[in-house]
Amino acid sequence: MIIERKTLGDTAQLQGLGLHSGVPVTVKIHPGADGIWFRCGSDRIKAIPENVSDTSRCTRLGPIGTIEHLMSALAALEITDVEVESDAPEMPAIDGSALPFLVALREAGCAVLGSSELALPYARLFHHVGDIRIAMGRGEGHWRYLFDAGTRWPGQQSYESTDILGIYADEVAPARTFGFMEDVPAMIQAGLAKGLDETTALILGIEGYKNDALFEDEPARHKLLDLIGDLYLAGIPIKYLNVTAERSGHKTNVEAAAILARAAAGA
Question: pTM for the full model?
Answer without folding.
Answer: 0.96
